[in-house]
UniProtKB/TrEMBL annotation:
MOSC domain span: 18-169
Gene3D superfamilies the record matches: PK beta-barrel domain-like (2.40.33.20)
PROSITE patterns assigned: MOSC (PS51340)
Sample GO molecular function, one term: molybdenum ion binding
Organism expressing this protein natively: Streptomyces pratensis (strain ATCC 33331 / IAF-45CD)
Name of the protein this chain belongs to: MOSC domain containing protein
Annotated Pfam families: MOSC (PF03473)
Length: 181
């Protein structure tokens, strides 16, 4: 499975959206250099209050640009970085990857997929009604579907830019489906 990076974003302050950048630098074991969510332990603003010593499985947030196309059909204009992701991709089925997949980004960087992003109510503060489009209950199975991207940790650092290649390396089987992290 091959695709490409369409945008990279980071923010040094807690904010729902992240501005697009010409490049981001991934730091092994930490995340996106200069991003508020970088660190060895959890940096999610709410979860830090009750689980401050947990390992940071959310160092890098990835979003598939195809979601923006889907949301546009429902009347929601969303662009790269606006939902808080660090790396926006096209041509990679991010939500279909198993836990532990390695994503090779550009020439050097390698990240390991840890799970699904758990969408929060702040999405509706950004665009009213958007949460219902990225978080849905399957009426048959009763399972929730999370479409707001995936999370990863940095295994090998490097610079990532728009138009860089994304190559997925699946882990040995049996594969574990993504769960919320």
């Amino acid at each position: 499975m091959a695709g490409r990076v369409t945008a990279v974003s980071s923010n040094a302050a807690y904010s729902f959206s992240k501005p697009n950048r010409a490049h981001v630098t991934l730091l092994a074991g930490l995340g996106v250099e200069g991003d508020v969510h970088a660190g060895e332990t959890i940096r999610h603003q709410f979860r830090m209050t009750y689980e401050p010593d947990l390992p940071n499985l959310r160092q890098v947030h990835l979003m598939h640009e195809e979601l923006f196309d889907e949301l546009a059909l429902e009347g929601h204009a969303v662009a790269a970085g606006q939902l808080g992701e660090n790396i926006t991709t096209r041509g990679v089925d991010l939500l279909g990857l198993p836990t532990g997949t390695l994503l090779h980004l550009g020439e050097q960087a390698v990240i390991e997929v840890t799970g699904l992003r758990n969408p929060c109510a702040k999405i509706n503060d950004f665009r009213p009604g958007l949460l219902g489009e990225v978080f849905a209950l399957d009426p048959v199975s009763g399972e929730f579907t999370f479409k707001s991207g995936i999370m990863a940790v940095v295994r090998r650092g490097g610079r990532v830019r728009p138009d860089d290649a994304v190559e997925a390396e699946l882990p040995p089987g049996p594969h574990r489906p993504l769960e919320r992290v």
